[in-house]
Specification:
10% helix; alpha+beta; 2 domains; 9 strands; 2 helices; 3-stranded antiparallel beta sheet
């Protein structure tokens, strides 16, 4: 279940990267007619207008969902967040979300640049520390 999957209509292609998904359910709450986790394929891309789909994809806190306009290439998920602006959001019973460009310095000294939304684990049960991998959902 780790391979990225693509779902297209005539205008847009939605990319889902399951390994990044933290199961915040923002997609299913924002656009339940398109994002249906109990149905296969779970993204019913022809069930809503392209702009509504794009708005929902942009709200994905983990970056598991992204998109590109057909014929153009993958779009930046957080186009509304300026690169020099950082915002932090605490999700109820979930991760700490950091929106914007940041540098993560790991305890071994290595640095990692993040330019989209970054989800940091708050429960301590992640298998991908310090990042959230959705383990809190299984509790």
């Amino acid at each position: 279940m780790g391979t990225a999957k693509e779902y297209s209509n005539s205008e847009v292609t939605v990319i889902w990267k399951p390994k990044l998904c933290i199961h915040s359910a923002k997609c299913t709450h924002n656009l339940p007619e398109v994002f249906k986790p109990k149905v296969r394929p779970w993204i019913q891309i022809n069930k809503a207008e392209t702009e509504r789909i794009i708005d929902t994809v942009k709200a994905c806190p983990s970056g598991a969902l992204s998109y590109y306009m057909n014929g153009i290439g993958e779009a930046e998920v957080d186009t509304e967040v300026k690169k020099d602006m950082t915002r932090i959001e605490i999700m109820e019973n979930g991760p700490l979300l950091v929106f914007g460009t940041i540098t993560v310095k790991h305890d071994d000294g290595r640095e990692e640049q993040k330019t989209k939304t970054t989800a940091f684990c708050r429960c301590g049960k992640t298998g991908n520390a310090p990042f959230c991998d959705g383990t809190h959902i299984k509790q």
